[in-house]
Amino acid sequence: MKHLLSAADLSRDDARQILDTAAQMHDVQQREVKKLPVLRGRTVVNLFFEDSTRTRSSFEIAGKWLSADVINVSAKGSSVSKGESLRDTAMTVAAMGVDALVIRHHASGAPLQVTDWVDAVVINAGDGTHEHPTQALLDAYTMQARLGDLAGKRIGIIGDLTHSRVVRSNLILLRTLGADVTLVAPPTLMPSGIANWAAAEGFSYSYDFDEVLPKLDAAMMLRVQKERMSGGFFPTPREYTVGYGLTRDRLRALPEHAVICHPGPVNRGLEITADAADEARSLILDQVSAGVAVRMSVLYHLLGGAENA
Amino acid sequence: MERPDSTVPRPEADPPGRIVLTASDISRALRRIAHEIVEHNKGVQDLVVLGIPTRGEALATRIVALLREIEGVDVPVGSLDTTMYRDDLRSQPTRAVGATTIPDSGVDGKVVVLVDDVLYSGRTVRAALDALGDLGRPQAVRLAVLVDRGHRELPIRADHVGKNLPTARSERVSVRLTDPDGVEEVRIATPHGELS
Amino acid sequence: MTTYLIKGADLLGAGRQDLLVTDGVIAEVGTVTAVDATVIDADGLVALPGLVDLHTHLREPGREDAETVATGSAAAAAGGFTAVLAMANTSPVTDTAEAAERVFDLGRSCGLVDVQPIGAVSKGLAGEELAELGLMARSRAAVRVFSDDGKCVHDARLMRRALEYVKTFGGVVSQHAQEPRLADSSACCHEGELSGRLGLPGWPGVAEEVIVARDVMLARHTGSRVHIAHVSTAGSVEVVRWAKSQGIAVTAEVTPHHLMLDTTRLTDYDPTFKVNPPLRPAEDIAELRKALADGTIDAVATDHAPHARHDKEHAFAEAAFGMLGLEQALQVVNTVMVQPGLMSWEQVAAAMSTTPARIAGLTGHGRPLALGEPANITLIDPSATVEVDRADSRSLSRNNPWHDMTLTGRVHSTLLRGRPTLLDQEVQQ
Fold this sequence. Notes:
The complex is a heterotrimer of chains A (309), B (196) and C (429). Helices cover 40% and strands 15% of the residues of chain A.
């Protein structure tokens, strides 16, 4: 594995190794001296074509704690509007002698395209409505910390699946780790071709949250963007909450041991009730703190060894 | 990416080479080391024993058991992974990270005894000292090894040595312990085709 | 003018003949033993009437960095074409008589292929008011085909009026069928499992089909002719087949890429494969081939869409739509239709020359290879295998989707009114 572009790049062994290392990194985070010397002399560029303070700072801290030189390049508004192509932007940055490019892009597939043009390791920090593999790793990490081995665990992913980059990565990674995944959304927010996709990959999908809910070990609630409402994907926020929100009633129907996660930012009251977000079994804050550890682990595994190893 | 091969023992045939330390040699060596530690430290107060994974960890556990036998006190024991501090990371595939477990007592102001199976170039110990430095400030650090095979590349020496074993650089020293290997012995092997 | 003797060509696959070409016309057919003629050895080659492309983007004026009339003409000659219809979406748009004449003249002065301008349906392709259709028709360019291609004439009332209007001078509206409410300008991947997996905005087949259905009904209502550009789905074929059975004056074209390349090409997000309408699944391709073979689809048209490198080297969703087609069209048709036995050379002549010429009202093209006819002739070696290299293109652009693929057939020579524009694979400037 040279790059991390998709959760599909990870075998079960790779994924487990990254999660194991993340646990060690998590311990390092508790220490007074948080810095490890592993990436001394290496340069990591956060090339962000889209704002994301959380992901960017998480990668930045992760890189710095591993002693890499981390540089943030905001390429927002460049490319098409300025007439500079993605290739030009990527090659210009790579020409500065970069070991890794952490790329966030508003268009699906952009990080993959960049691998054709540069020698550096490319890490996908979220591309369009496609994937966000490090988010999936940290979700798996937090769930695993509470639930143990995820093999055979029943995990529901509920919300705006069409426009989510998190769902694809999570679906792939959780399947790799042996979990039993069910996607839940109204038909208008389900990815296209879901029936064929589910049949081909062996996961389930449902339009009925209440039917799925009582069997879950984990409910992953995805953000529903308010701007989707103008697109007529669903009639009103109220109707969405009744059908697909994690309401108080549903919280009671969720098995006692089940955990709740949300990659954030949370729309309290829309996809998740305020109480649920603050419940003890909510992993929302764990998810944030695991972000740095998981990204340290990813950077270590991609950059820590010999090149092309 | 490769699976760590150090944490999961794989049953394998006897490695080549001749046995230089038997199980009873190893037990005697460890007992002597334990006595030396007590003697040198004038007891076991402020001691912390940290093993370097994987076999150093196993040896540390055994030394601590012997210390309890001798002094009747449980000495805090832990492990110190050096992977992230190695200076040869770039020359090989990414290594799996081992566990670092520091006893609750911490290392500040303690006498830390680092335990490893084989002392060779000294680079692992250098990495361990760096790792330890990031964890706190011990009063003193000592080094205990089962085998010292020479060929140091850094100014490092062990305080407690089970056995000094003169070797050629081309030779391979393999330490196997009942836990985790199921066999207890130290072998030295000459590369195929060479005479020892 | 030089006299040429084409020796031993297989005429439309119907048998070996010699063709004597002099003064721009076919002077003799049969066994010819002429002196004073330049001989073109056509042993093993199939002779077709010069190909006519109903759908070419030449980019001049406006984007001469991507293609010019000269380079596009060279690519056309290399692909066996003697006439191309140049789409109106240039800058400025071909929406006036003057603009149409300018394109027409550029083509004639270049001389490699007859460039026939297509006029815009609406002013500036804005889809609001009719362009000067009548003035373009009356101009020196004698425009007969009108299209807002690149955009759909989505307003039903505007479409109706355009159809009514062009009827008076025998014109036709070539519709880019894309209901913008179902597939907006961001739509770039066939809507289905793959678009779901790739997270690319979906372009459902139904967005094409509802416009095709609407427009055949408008054609019936107005009694006018409608032409469906780049048909890409089985559903559209179904509608066209029904419309033809009802006697509605509808014609349809399919592109070489929709006949050969399926949607799985998008898996690596290579913008070379970004085209509008998008590449479709294999099931659609099978239906398109069948429809071309049975005549439901009338013509093969390239939708040759050159793009400068920097317009393609963006993230997939932001890259320009379109791919090259002129140089590979005949090879593709040979590879996927003729060689597997789905189509005869006679049918190829109909789909790539006779019928498009008739649809476009080009009387000098698409004529039979017979005595006294204009000598517009294409010679192809049907058995040669060619590994396509985009670097070899005569186009200014390199967005060739067949790069690195092996195709069967090689265009050997092209004659436009008796003058070789391509001779033994060399473009004759």
